[in-house]
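Tip: read the tokens left to right.
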């Protein structure tokens, strides 16, 4: 089992920045995929960003966050990060991190169904 705990959410004004963290504990994987997803009220959970460590590092981003968000990972700390800049009210949501103990394909990295382990979520609210 893998336990994931997100932190770093909060209230920020439009144009501001936040950095989310996702700390993993329990079983860890030498080659795994980590993803960030978000869910706004009344909407489905959607892909934000993902990072894969398999034959090098691969990242993917949703078009809506490309150029503003950066995903990274610190394997020594078993922690993933999501740096979010130039936030807008449309970024308001509960943000979830997810992990899968294998290197996912480029397409699978963006799908909620590809991930086995999920955190409890952290609220991000962007005021206008």
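Filled-in amino acids:
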């Amino acid at each position: 089992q893998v336990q994931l705990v997100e932190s770093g959410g909060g209230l920020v004004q439009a144009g501001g920045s936040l950095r989310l963290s996702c700390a993993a504990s329990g079983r860890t994987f030498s080659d795994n995929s980590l993803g960030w997803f978000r869910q706004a009220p009344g909407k489905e959970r959607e892909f934000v960003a993902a990072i894969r460590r398999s034959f090098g590092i691969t990242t993917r981003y949703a078009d809506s966050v490309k150029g503003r968000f950066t995903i990274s990972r610190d394997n020594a700390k078993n922690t993933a990060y999501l740096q979010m800049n130039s936030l807008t009210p449309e970024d308001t949501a509960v943000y979830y991190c997810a992990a899968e103990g294998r290197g996912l394909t480029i397409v699978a990295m963006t799908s909620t169904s590809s991930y086995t382990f999920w955190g409890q979520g952290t609220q991000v609210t962007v005021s206008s």
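The CA atoms of residues 2 and 26 lie 5 Å apart. DSSP finds no helices and eleven strands in the chain.
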